[in-house]
Amino acid sequence: xHAQTVRLIHLKQVGPDCHLLKFxxxxxxxxxxxxxxxxxxxxxxxxxxxxxxxxVMRTNPAEGSFEVLVRVVGRGTEMLAxxxxxxxxxxxGPLGNPFELSGPEGDVVLVAGGVGVAPLIFxxxxxxESERHRxxxxxxxAGTEDDLCCWLELSGVCDEFTAVTEDGSxxxxxxxxxxxxEQLDRGAGCVYACGPRAxxxxxxxxxxxxxxxxxxxxxxxxxxxxxxxxxxxxxxxxSGVGRYQRVCKDGPVFDAAVIDWEAMxxxxxxx
Amino acid sequence: xAAGRVDLSVDLAGLRLVNPVLxxxxxxxxxxxxxxxxxxxxxGGIITKGITLQPREGNPPPRICETPAGMLNAIGLQNPGVxxxxxxxxxxxxxxxxxxIVNIAGETADDYVALAARLSECEAIAALxxxxxxxxxxxxxxxxxxxxxxxxxxxxxxxxxxxxxxITKLSPNVTDIAALARAARDGGTDALSLINTLLGMNVDIRxxxxxxxxxxxxxxxxxxxxxxxxxxxxxxxxxxxPIVGMGGIMSAADALQFIxxxxxxxxxxxxxxxxxxxxxRIIKDLAVFCEEHGVxxxxxxxxxxxxxxxx
Lengths: 271, 311
Description:
The complex is a heterodimer.
Chain A: E1 2-15, E2 18-24, H1 26-31, E3 37-41, E4 52-60, E5 65-71, H2 75-82, E6 88-95, E7 108-113, H3 117-129, E8 136-142, H4 151-155, E9 160-165, E10 172-173, H5 180-185, E11 190-194, H6 197-209, E12 214-217, E13 233-235, E14 244-246, E15 253-255, H7 261-264
Parallel strand pairs in A: 7-8, 7-11, 8-9, 9-10, 11-12
Antiparallel strand pairs in A: 1-2, 1-6, 2-5, 3-4, 3-6, 4-5, 12-15, 13-14
Chain B: E1 10-12, E2 15-17, E3 21-23, E4 45-47, E5 64-67, E6 70-73, H1 82-95, E7 100-104, H2 109-120, E8 127-131, H3 142-145, H4 148-161, E9 166-169, H5 177-187, E10 191-194, E11 198-201, E12 203-204, E13 209-210, E14 216-220, H6 225-238, E15 243-246, H7 252-261, E16 265-268, H8 271-274, H9 278-292, H10 304-310
Parallel strand pairs in B: 3-4, 3-16, 4-7, 7-8, 8-9, 9-10, 10-15, 15-16
Antiparallel strand pairs in B: 1-2, 5-6, 6-14, 11-14, 12-13
């Protein structure tokens, strides 16, 4: 894990409220694994105070850079979106546990919702480049065509790609989870998902019913990012002191089977 | 005078600290969480996450929420319990070679006594911090810290159970913090730490409900610093006990405000989340300040603002 000041080298709007930010940082570029995140300080001042966690979307070790996908949801992300190339930010990372790549045999199914696509682009890229070729089928859902941020970056590294929009402006019409049953019916070795809580809960439910292993990347309001403050927890099925696990340190990738999805429904955090 | 020759050491109720910079309970885990990022051995000391007799799972999420120049937290004292702390956390803490101050919390006076007695059997614990001021648990916690008679009783009972130095952590959620400080002194505390978090709340207007699952939480960060400095000032006036000052310290300049208001040592809390390197920078900058201002010993600055006042 590194703590350092990094330079923003490129920034591009990729959706109505989504921006792709590229930072110069050889350490994260070389060490980050799919599913890991960086904890970014958006201002040197003290308001907004806390860092913001972002999944790494892609790395370019040759260039020494990494990219994150930022959706503007508040003042911190607004400041990031408004920043100029050349600006410097303090970053901690890579943090958290990556996706387990040596999962069970069989096709890999990715389910992405909105900006949840970011870690799955990194994962699909790694699977695509890996010597042990896995057949990767991706489902990517969003509200409208414009919200399908970076869909080309995902489709380019998958063997099959299905876009789903709620308004039918692109791809299939409906919710992304409406199209998961047929993917599971075709057989799948493992499902990886990232997106809104409700989507993840439904993905987890379907995977459990089909007895397919499922791993999800979760987000939560975060304090330290290194496991000390116990602020970013999510509820698991365990009882007692292990019930609440830290997204920053125990996650952000979790086996969907350990999560208490019922308790997650109570609106316990972003998404 | 070179910065390297400035004497940063302070005496906190018989505890010699090589510098006055501690890390505040709950913001630094049990030390190892930050070991990759911080040279923990260079700190003046570490105050652990609060420990209870039995393991506690803590509050449901969301547990934290950002506020202007601050944050609310309602962790609910999640911790593995004193026995697991002693077996799994204490050995690694000891390795840092700095004073380990264990923060203890209970639901009853007997809990505090049992914790103090148990921890007194362990080597390498420098002091106990009595958490009489946690705002985020239903039983105990702040319940003790806002009542003078209870504070005196609990501190007195713990005093009889241990020979370790006792630091009583005071709640700011009171009308007269000096009265609580006197009660803790009368109970036999060796030092005081203040302030714990200020009780606060945030409403999620989109969901039309409190943001935190616990409804209320404790406010920390730079937003509370002026309140904390004022309370250190008041308590320093009221009792003749060493004080660990805390509340929104982000820099050496902030730390010096607390020291000059009467704190012997300071604890850095929320700033660790924002900038893990902050404690190292504060220690360095304290020496630079002393050098630039011809101060040979930082201890000479303790309460300095009071002596200005009396001139």
